[in-house]
Write a structure and sequence with these properties.
The protein is mainly beta and about 325 residues long. About 10% of the residues lie in helices and about 35% in strands. Strands 1, 2, 3, 4, 5, 8, 16, 19, 20, 21 and 22 form an eleven-stranded mixed sheet that branches. Strands 9, 10, 11, 12 and 15 form a five-stranded antiparallel sheet that branches. The longest helix is centred in the N-terminal third of the chain and has 26 residues.
């Protein structure tokens, strides 16, 4: 059967239309302007994120008479003094810039620790356990938990004192500590603000623990005294704090954890704001502490809003003291 010239032209037009439709469909599916037939620009590689940082290490440290002298406190960037049962205190030592060979004696965690150390971007918490009531809170927090049962090779027992005051941790054996890049700085160091008042001695009282900080010009910091006795370490002798922060805060009752006297374990609130006294360079600066969210660092500023920065010599001791 003969095909007319007009029919042939119609068939050719349809073929061209179908081919164009296929090209457009391919372009739309590929997200480009046209299929690349060689020599075109290749897709950009994903951006480099840089090396993974070593996480901050926080160690819960015993602070009763049987636990002293402690080990490793002189290398800490920050030492937090927390109220615990019976009016006593316990320490949370924070390590970012330097890892000592050992830290201890290691003791149990408290509810205070959870919100307090979330500011350090998924830190590692080395501790000896916790009350059953707070273990779920610890497990649900953005914190890597490590005890001697979880990672026994990172802990050891000393022979100079009885259990439970003889457990120590080797920080360089904790998770993530083999990375070459250290964590971001945890201390806002810098020049002191103008003003302040002379402060050669300063005392802070908890219900069953009294601290005194004595300025030592020779050491360039404050010697730490607990209940009339100098706080010492096995590696460096008497403890000297480059900066002391008295952070006045609300102390509330914890969640169902009671001491032997039937009192609930205290929890020091570390999110919000309140009065603060900062001791450095032999002077005291009055101001406030501010922390809006649990993931934010705690900052300090004068009554006029000027930042109060820490000395770059020695650890910063922060006392979470009752208002």
């Amino acid at each position: 059967m003969a095909v007319s010239k007009s029919a042939v032209q119609l068939i050719a037009a349809v073929a061209v239309f179908v081919a164009a439709a296929v090209v457009v469909t391919l372009v739309l599916l590929s997200g480009g302007d046209a299929p690349d037939r060689g020599g075109g620009q290749q897709p950009s590689p994903p951006p480099e994120t840089g090396p993974e940082r070593r996480p901050v290490v926080v160690v819960k440290v015993d602070n009763v008479d049987q636990a002293r002298p402690q080990t490793g406190l002189s290398a800490a960037d920050i030492v937090y003094v927390e109220p615990v049962e019976g009016g006593l205190t316990r320490l949370a030592a924070v390590y970012a810039s330097e890892l000592p060979e050992a830290v201890g004696p290691v003791r149990s965690a408290r509810e205070t620790d959870i919100a307090l150390i979330e500011q350090f971007d998924r830190p590692v918490l080395a501790y000896s356990g916790g009350a059953p009531e707070i273990e779920p809170l610890l497990r649900n927090a953005p914190i890597e938990l490590v005890t001697d049962r979880m990672r026994p090779e990172a802990f050891f027992r000393g022979h100079d004192r009885p259990i439970p005051h003889n457990l120590y941790v080797r920080p360089d054996s904790l998770p993530g500590q083999d990375r070459d890049t250290g964590p971001a700085a945890v201390v806002d160091a810098g020049a002191a603000p103008e003003g302040g008042r002379a402060a050669a001695d300063h005392e802070v009282a908890f219900r069953a623990a009294g601290y005194r900080f004595h300025w030592s010009e020779a050491d360039g910091g404050y010697r730490v005294v607990l209940n009339g006795t100098p706080v010492t370490t096995t590696e460096a002798g008497e403890v000297v704090a480059g900066t002391v922060v008295v952070q006045r805060t609300e102390i509330r009752e914890g969640r169902q954890v009671r001491d032997s006297g039937g009192r609930f374990s205290p929890v020091a609130v570390s999110v919000g704001r309140g009065e603060a006294t900062i001791l450095r360079d032999g002077r005291a600066f009055e101001g406030e502490w501010v922390r809006e969210n649990r993931g934010d660092p705690i900052t300090y500023r004068t009554e006029s809003g000027e930042p109060i920065r820490m000395s770059d010599s020695g650890p910063v001791w922060v006392l979470l003291a009752p208002r």
